[in-house]
Amino acid sequence: MIKKILFLCTLSFFMISCGSSKNVSSTYQKTASTMTPREVDVASTKSEVTEEVVVKEVTVADKIVWTAVTYKGVPYRFGGMSKRGMDCSGLIFTSFQQRNVPIARSSHEMYRQGESIPLREVQRGDLLFFKTSRRRGKVNHVGLVTSVDNGDVRFIHSTTSQGVIVTSLHEHYWKRTFIEAKRVL
Question: Which CATH superfamily is domain 60-183 in?
């Protein structure tokens, strides 16, 4: 009886393990949108890309966004530019700087750079400018567009209440305080 149970267990083990193996001959496609930033960097630097990996060209904007996203969750700190704390323009300045792209340090000065673009033409890597205060001056907040999906513009920025977060421009507060979009890349 024990030999029969042992035989059945062994047989079922082999059947299960063979049935769960992947079919090696099937083609697997992985696109840049489903890959991690590291996988895209590695795939895009290979001298030959196989048919099994479909990769879109990695842009400077992609790299800047990936850098900015590494700061997600960092607390707000006025004038901050590190993992210990960041303000909105510090996040943008640091993300651009780490990818060797020069940009002004303050949101007000960033606003003077680049080309104004209609919101419907916004792309990943563009900057969004806001006036969140009644104080004198036009711009006092900046965010970096991380994605645009069916008109939903998402951007990363640092807020005084939540630190570095990704937000939708459809949220009432941000829609109301939005001033202008600019392309600096």
Answer: endopeptidase domain like (from Nostoc punctiforme) (3.90.1720.10)
What is the percent of the chain where pLDDT is above 90?
66
Catalytic residue among 9, 18, 88, 172: 88
Residue 89 and residue 105 in contact, taking contact as beta carbons nearer than 8 Å:
yes
Q: Across the chain, how many H-helices and E-strands are there?
A: 6, 8
Chain mean pLDDT for the chain: 81
Active-site residue among 18, 108, 157, 172? 157
Among residues 108, 141, 170, 172, the one annotated as catalytic is 141
Q: Is 141 a catalytic residue?
A: yes
Radius of gyration over alpha carbons of the chain, in Å? 24
The kind and range of the H/E element at 69 are helix 60-69
Domain extent listing, the chain: 21-58, 60-183
Band (pLDDT 50/70/90 cuts) for residue 52 is: low
What would the mean pLDDT of 49-70 be, rounded to a whole number? 83
- What is the residue type of 86? M
For residue 14, count CB atoms less than 10 angstroms from its CB and return exposed for 0-12, middle for 13-18, buried for 19 or more.
exposed
pTM confidence score: 0.70
Please say if 157 is a catalytic residue: yes
